[in-house]
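Subject: two folds for Thursday's group meeting

Dear M.,

Sorry for the delay on this. The cluster queue was jammed most of the week, so I only got both jobs back this morning. I'm pasting them in the order they finished. Each block is the input sequence followed by the predicted structure tokens. Could you check whether the formatting survives your parser before we put anything on slides? The first protein is the one we discussed after the seminar.
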Amino acid sequence: MLKTLNYNNKNSLKILEMFLDKRKLIQKNQTSVVSKIIENVKKDGDKAVLKYEKKFSKIKKKSNKVFFTDKEINVLSKKIDKKLKKAIDLAYTRIKKFHAKQKFSSFKFKDKYKNELSYKFLPIEKVGVYVPGGTASYPSTVLMNCIPAIVAGVKNIYLTTPALDSKINPAIVYAAKKCGVKKIYKTGGAHSIAALAYGTRNFKKVDKIVGPGNAFVACAKKEVFGDVGIDMVAGPSEVSVVADKYAEPDLVSADLIAQAEHDENSQSILITDNINLIKLVNLSLKKQLKKLPKKNIATKSLKNFGLAIFTKNKKKIIEIINTIAPEHLELCTNYNNKIIKGVKNAGSIFIGKFSPEAIGDYIAGPNHVLPTSGSARFSSGLSVNDFLKRSSLIKITKTGIERLSASVINLAKHENLEGHAHSVKVRLKKEK
């Protein structure tokens, strides 16, 4: 089931990098198509949004209502199953509690010249949240993207999810209502990203767009970045599980499958110092897949992008992790702490047999919007900080400019910026 890479062999690192790159290349760039969609939405507004929504979602209905009315939201949110409602409420509480700890504080200080220097945090004013529809209809996406914004103090959150044909998961509507979303739009795709980025008669123009989506949505976010902010360009989900001889093969297999069922392009990797565990995990995968509703998706994912990496060297295990830079890292060994000390690149780390990645997707508290495709080398998961702007305030005294001016003038002249030097000189008693 899982291909095996013996990391004790020569050129193992290069082979691993090539294997990881193969998956990245499959995530095709849709730039030309998406650019055309964006331009049409900028030109024709709601008309273009509706045209593309009906085309891509294959909707034959004539409905032109691009957002849910308050009445529709109230009716739909009451249709939610009681157990599911209770689960969403608990998740909301836990996620909010964790993110409340992340808030940054503004600060102010004076230096020896009585110059006043400060840093001010302000929330973004308007945020757009994209929530996928169809088979990937997740209320957890609503919570994970909206709650950090709420904690940051964002007052205007707008959400869009494909539902023009009235097929909508009530749990999404309930979660959105609980998060105080101002308006829920009924469209998806690149055209919805464009509508949020540039505004239409019905779509509010936002300052930042967050949330996962397919290749077209990811590409659209890339294209509009600069005109609006974005969280990240996320690829298919992934997990790396580090396990030793003490790990239970059935638990390891279950967690590999949990990622594989997301998408055919998801990636599940086992890293181990025990060659026998690979055999046991492969047997368990075959057994567990038989009962899985999304068997075909998970099987393709594991076949094409699954990998078992074997090495006896614990330092090499850390090298492998940092090379992969996984979105999710699970540690199921009796030397977890040693690994944690060496890990530099990972989105979220799950420690021990009772910490499956699935609990992080829903209810643990930390955010499940995490860097993928190796981007954990330079980025982090979604947080309150992503919804805050930071401004520096500088107030220089007369003494301050007199004492600091010489250095400023010297630096400005070195950089051939005489205008900069002059703007300091004219504030001094005598020009130097």
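Second protein, same layout:
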Amino acid sequence: MAVYIFVLVAVAILGLLEYQHRYSVASNNHESNKKRINIYLILIVAVFLFVGGFRYQVGTDFLTYYQGFSCSWEVLLYKFCTLDEPLIFLITNLCRTIWNEGVLVIFVEHAITVLLVIKGIRDWEDKSITFPLLMYIVACSWTGSFNGIRQALAGAIIFAFSKQIGKWWWLRYALVCFVAYLVHNTAIFILPILLLAHRKIDLKQIFIISGVAVLMPYFATVALSLTNSSLNTHYAQHSINILRVAISIVPMLMLLFTSRTFREENNFLANMIIFNALISFTTRNSALLYRFADYTDMYLMLFIPKLSSIFARNSKNIYRIIVFALYFLYFFTEVQSGNGNINNFQWVFSHIGE
């Protein structure tokens, strides 16, 4: 647990320093201030990459990625022709061509995921990125990427390019989901959710979202069949921790206390939060099906910080402290549960060359 505390403290300090100097640049456009902001961002990225990129046996199926997912270039070409998740094999092949060690594969895959997530946060958050980054950790999206590496990477691709830009935004979503599909086949099923999330929140939209959420287990079953995943395993039939459902539902309920203006300004995020809560609830009885919520719960790290705007100025910090404390307790519970060997953190350095 100590290593995760270190990451939280380091990100909090560096994030606050980045926030302070961001406003220094706004008031005093000096080149040295710009460089300092870049340094703080680089250091934040470095903290994430050092811990997540140099872990060993931390996360479900770690050795599958550490030792596997390489193939001949002829087989890789066939995978591209058949769209059989070729990008993860391409990344592995390129890494092993440079240095035939699993540590490089894990590091590069984690680096791509984290950089995409931070890119997405900066697209949506024009003020401080500190709280969203802390939520990225304590809401378990970051450590979740240790477990489902392919799905985390696919989700990061979608998250990084999910902000609506231009009149051809729907075509951009289709392209992004297709690229994510080349990493993990289930990503293509998130495209309808992204498109629906741009609808205005009203009674009709609530019915549409509810219908999609109810049907999600059936969609998920079809999607998982594409990856040859079995629903008859213990993992597939294992119910998830009810706390996971709770931390998804509470933000949705808080929408009831927001103004119409807030919902209109954050329409897409609010819709994604509703999708996330209902998908989490409908797939709660299968840990395998529940992983479809991983594509939507990433938006918690954007939505929860924005909720602070509904509070008076003096209450915002109290809200942030309470929310962070509650999510930290959830994070602590998840780490201590031992799922994916997250709690048993090991460094890779003594294992290179095995």
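Two things I noticed about the second structure. The longest helix spans residues 2-27. The chain is about 70% helix and 0% strand.

Cheers,
T.
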